[in-house]
Design the sequence.
């Protein structure tokens, strides 16, 4: 992890039910969203120091056959929606403040 300097172990394995991908960070151990797993999923080449090109290709294949990328895409869309909603709220508050000040509300 670049932010804390901690070293976490990430393990990916193909199971009968799908892809199991663990991380030893606190969030990962609690089964919560983990930025370390997301970073590797979004850019599998980040693991190139620890994996061969063949292993990275296998991992990418596992990702393509899972629902993980679709979930991450949905998260990104929802986060963008939140960002846009916050901008809209800010704009509306400014407009209301202006109108209250001008007496045009």
Sequence:
């Amino acid at each position: 992890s670049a932010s804390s300097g901690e070293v976490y172990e990430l393990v990916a394995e193909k199971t009968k039910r799908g892809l199991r991908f663990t991380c030893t960070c606190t969030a990962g151990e609690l089964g919560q969203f983990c930025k370390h797993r997301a970073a590797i999923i979004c850019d599998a080449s980040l693991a190139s120091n620890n994996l061969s090109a063949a292993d990275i290709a296998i991992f990418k294949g596992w990702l393509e056959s899972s629902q993980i990328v679709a979930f991450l895409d949905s998260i990104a869309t929802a986060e963008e929606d939140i960002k846009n909603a916050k901008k809209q709220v800010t704009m509306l508050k400014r407009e209301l403040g202006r109108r209250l000040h001008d007496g045009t509300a």
Observations:
- Residues 68-102 form the longest helix (35 residues).
